[in-house]
Amino acid sequence: MDADSDRVAHIQAEWHRERPDIDTFPQGIIGRLHRIGLLLDQRLAEVYANFDLSYAEFDILATLRRAGAPYRRRAGELADHTMVTSGGLTKRVDRLIVRGLVERRPEASDARGRLIGLTDAGLSLIDEAFTAHMAGEHRIIEELGTDAETLEPILRRWLGILEPPVNPTHSTPGRS
Asked: HTH marR-type domain: which residues (predicted)?
């Protein structure tokens, strides 16, 4: 599909017909990025489904795995490091507990605090799922050929403009 026949081009053409006084150039970039994001989410969800995981469940397991051994985080910290809202976190963690992939235990230094950690089964599953996830992302990026090398610094710069810098002790949510 060339750029003149995609859905965003069609929408821009309709707006140009109805409102020729407004420049829709930004819609071409932002609309396509939005559509690409939705389509990427669909492709990634297919990989997660192979492991009977939703995006949010994959994100939780991956966040715990990235924490390093013993693969635990405080519940509040887990919410900060994922794309899952704190309200949705409890429900998803409960489902992962039922599946035997994570466990919840009291924090030694704070009787009210809770640590969420990977079980051996959870560690094994996320390692396998992450391997498949990265293979899927490589396949997607390979579709761009050498354009990927041009696109990455542009996206990095733009994200740096739109998003505050990451504090190394408190990472920003993102793709796991």
From this structure: 26-160
